[in-house]
Amino acid sequence: MSATEPVTVKMDRRPQLRDMRRLRGPGAEAALETHIRSESAVAERAARPRISAPQSFAGRAGFDRTFLTGFPVDLPKPNGQRSRDVTPVGGDASGRLDYCNFSVVMSASRRMALLTAVNIEGARSVSIEREDDKWSLDGRLPVEAQLGEDLYAGNRLDRGHLVRREDPNWGDNALVANEDTFHFTNCAPQMDIVNQKTWLGLENYILKNARAWAERCSVFTGPVFGAADLRYRDALVPKAFWKVVSFLSDDGRPSATAYVVEQEKELGQLEAAFGAFKIYQRSVKHVEGLSGLSFGSLANFDGFSNEEDVEGGLSISSEIRVLGDVRI
Questions:
Q1: What's the rounded Cα separation, in Å, for the pair 109 and 259?
Q2: Are strands 77-78 and 293-294 parallel, antiparallel or unpaired?
Q3: What pTM was estimated for this model as a whole?
């Protein structure tokens, strides 16, 4: 029957089981079996989470403030209410969790990272093939202080790496660094379109250019915690994320740039399609206001922040449509 021929709708037809047919083409049996195994694995991970033993992190130095020679960059410091939201680690009130070449500070109220900090050395970068993701909870914190597999099962949320998987993978301990990035302390719920496209494009651009800027840069990343964030399951899903990059330009000039990725439209149901995400280059000072963090003197080396000062506090925003729009 052609598409133009009329169709007689048989409203009186009441099919029985014998009238029905299976919609299975070649390979369907194997595909169904694979799907069932996958769903079972997700359920098992949620019921029996992987937990890294505290002693397995022995010797991790974490983020190095002196990584950029002659340009010391401190770990961002939570201010005001944010300083009271830090999850302590053992007896350390700073909440600093050190991994290989990066560090994380957790939010007690949100049970996800307040901030992450990574040192990238492009000249010693090691390419490590991504295999089956095996995410773990960090045994240095109580299980209830971390969001785990339950949040990500059966929806469009990605376990979005805050410290990008490839970024700390340099030097002799690159394999260790790669494994360290797969901790729930280093991820936040990101819609697939943000994690896989918008955010990834910026991170690729940063890593590529780190190899040109004296081969090194330090990158800070975190979620924007807002009062109107979407409550989903047992968590609040951030509507935006920020990133601050510090580096030395080819002529030795200290520089810093800041970025915000946000969703333009009000979030709908999580399983439904979300609105269009956009990425903006903003000032370091703007990110300080959003995050409740102090980046020390970094704003002094950011053209956006300095321009805002000259313009008497005017807020400057530049949409990045293509990566060539990034200004350094």
A1: 24
A2: antiparallel
A3: 0.80
